[in-house]
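TL;DR need structure tokens for one chain.
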Amino acid sequence: MSSVPDDAAESGSKPSAQSTPAIVWPGARILSWPEAAPFGPGLDRPLPAVEAPGEDLILCLHGFPSTPLCYRLVEGAARSRGFDLAAPLMPGCGTVPGDILEFSYQDWVAFGTDLWRRLRPRWKRAWLVGTSVGGSAALEIAAAFAANDALSPSGIATIGSPVVLNAPLRRGMMKSALLYFAGALSPFVPAMGAAMPDAAREGEDGDERWRGYLGTYAAFSHSLQKGLRSLERRLGSVRAPALALHEVRDRMIDPRNARIIADETGGGGEARYFDMGDAGHMRHDLLLYDSTRDRAWSAILDHFDAIREAGDGPRGRMY
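>> reply
TL;DR here they are.
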């Protein structure tokens, strides 16, 4: 796939219901949810000048097949503590379900990596946050640039993110046996239950705000299983201090992933768990739910603040 267009980081154009700017993702059509459009420096506003870099940027990557809407809910809290947010719309998302069939997990990683490479040099410190598969992509970026002082992240936080799906013998974890057949099935059954959510649905704890596609997507799932096996092997190369948040009975991703991230990343990590009691929703995106949003986001900003305060240099890295 094409990566972020050359003019994306300088565009400053704003998305609308009538048009899709080049900075959404290459080939995107009109957005289904204008309120879920990407936002932040280099996405809907100009970047800081090269000669006057910003202080702190958080690149926020959403999950599959969702949108960056959850990050709009915390943008004000981030700004109040001195952080700019940039939240892209990941490839294939935000339009119609058929568009996601053109992309793989590796495409998501390439898109996020290219955007990070463009944004990172414009801030003194830059941080990564990812929800669900967006957190997996954030870990990929952190691993890729760990040894590059100019492009390494200052810290990273994940929310309900997987590094292991199926590993019954190695980890005692099994997401779905269908993942083993997803690659073979994808040419014949590319998606199951693909649909748009009911805009008038009643929600629980704010989950009616969620914007994304319903269904299961075989090719992406297959590419994710393969990609995560590679990422799992490289977790030790992530040198940025990591915070992994997870709900204890997450219905989407096995909560043991948070402990794996905390224990096996190379920069020192912490796993922190939330218990949502008898909640009936997916218990997955902690920034989406009214009952956990403020606590989860405060935990992330506190983590980043601690790194800033303890940092041994202008980039606030603590290794």
